[in-house]
């Protein structure tokens, strides 16, 4: 009986049992290695996808944030624009209102000035009409004085009273009397009685009265009652002498004008408020 092959087989069987086949161990190792070597690739692929996805998300986030920021800036700019535009519009409106208010005030002031000017012009016309009426009354009174000398007795009595009044005002022992040439005869007839009456009233001696050879201008005629000399505007030696006297001291330093037109002017000025009140119902200033 041949036993070595069995022994060899036994040995081989033992060695085979003791050590697995090479190809089985290598395949296991390959199988074990392949999964371990394929995970990083898959992980890398997965990481690239995640990174890309994250990048896209970040891009979308940044874009959204940028759009929101741009929208906020646009809204803020629109609000600021509207506010500034409103302020500019209101400022221009205010300027326009102020300009129209200024023009309206100017118009009102112009109207007030025009009204005041028209009112003053009306008042001046009224006052001028009143003055014309008063002056016409004085002219009428001056015309009436022209008839005084026609009544000789009463006229001589008036001349004497005027001479006495002048002497009482002068109170001089010697005076110079100047009269109209037409009144020289009447003055001579009443001169003595005038001196006596003055002496009695003044309790003095009768004064010396010299009748001046230089006469006063004659009275105006009825046809020229206004004359070249107006009663309302006369100077000392440029008078509308209707009649009567002008007395002066001998040295000429004191002169007393007592003509009829001068007396009329004095009375007229004194009675002017009463005349105006009687004519116009009020006392004029």
Describe the structure.
- The protein is of the alpha+beta class and 285 residues long.
- The protein has a domain of 135 residues: hypothetical protein PF0899 fold, CATH 3.30.2320.
- 69% of the residues lie in helices and 7% in strands.
- The protein contains five helices and four strands; from the N terminus they run H-H-H-E-H-E-E-E-H.
- A four-stranded mixed beta sheet has the order 2-1-3-4.
- Strand 3 and strand 4 form a beta hairpin.
- Helix 2 crosses helix 5 and helix 3 packs across helix 4.
- It starts with a helix and ends in a 5-residue tail after the last helix.
- The N terminus is likely disordered.
Q: How is the CATH topology of the domain at 146-280 named? A: hypothetical protein PF0899 fold
Number of strands: 4
What proportion of the residues is helical, as a percent range?
Answer: 55-70%
The name of the CATH superfamily of the domain at 146-280 reads: ATP synthase, E subunit, C-terminal
The radius of gyration over CA amounts to 70 Å
The assigned CATH architecture of the domain at 146-280 is 2-Layer Sandwich
H/E element order: HHHEHEEEH
Mean pLDDT: 76
Task: Please state how the strands of the largest beta sheet are arranged side by side.
Answer: 2-1-3-4
Span of the ends, CA to CA? 187 Å
Class by SSE composition:
alpha+beta
CATH class of the domain at 146-280, named: Alpha Beta
Q: Which shape, going by the Cα principal axes?
A: rod-shaped
How many strands, what sense, and barrel or not for the largest sheet?
4 strands, mixed
């Amino acid at each position: 009986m041949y036993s070595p092959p069995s022994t060899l087989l036994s040995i081989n069987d033992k060695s085979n049992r003791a050590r697995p086949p090479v190809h089985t161990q290598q395949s296991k190792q390959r199988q074990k290695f392949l999964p371990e070597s394929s995970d990083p690739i898959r992980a890398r692929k997965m990481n690239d996808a995640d990174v890309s996805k994250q990048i896209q998300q970040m891009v979308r986030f940044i874009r959204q944030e940028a759009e929101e920021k741009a929208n906020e800036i646009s809204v803020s700019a629109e609000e600021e624009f509207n506010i500034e535009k409103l302020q500019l519009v209101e400022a221009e409106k205010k300027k326009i209102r102020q300009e129209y208010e200024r023009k309206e005030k100017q118009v009102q002031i112009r109207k007030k000035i025009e009204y005041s000017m028209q009112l003053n012009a009306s008042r001046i016309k009224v006052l001028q009409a009143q003055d014309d009426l008063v002056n016409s009354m004085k002219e009428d009174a001056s015309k009436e004085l022209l008839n005084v000398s026609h009544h000789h007795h009463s006229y001589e009595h008036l001349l004497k009273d005027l001479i006495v009044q002048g002497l009482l005002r002068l109170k001089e022992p010697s005076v110079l009397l100047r009269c109209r040439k037409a009144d020289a005869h009447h003055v001579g007839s009443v001169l003595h009685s005038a001196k006596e009456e003055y002496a009695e009233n003044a309790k003095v001696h009768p004064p010396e009265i010299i009748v001046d050879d230089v006469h006063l201008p004659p009275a105006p005629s009825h046809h020229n009652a206004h004359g070249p000399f107006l009663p309302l505007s006369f100077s000392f030696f440029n008078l509308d002498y209707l009649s009567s006297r002008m007395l002066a001291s001998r040295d000429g330093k004191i002169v007393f004008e007592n003509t009829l037109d001068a007396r009329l002017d004095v009375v007229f000025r004194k009675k002017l408020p009463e005349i105006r009140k009687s004519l116009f119902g009020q006392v004029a200033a």
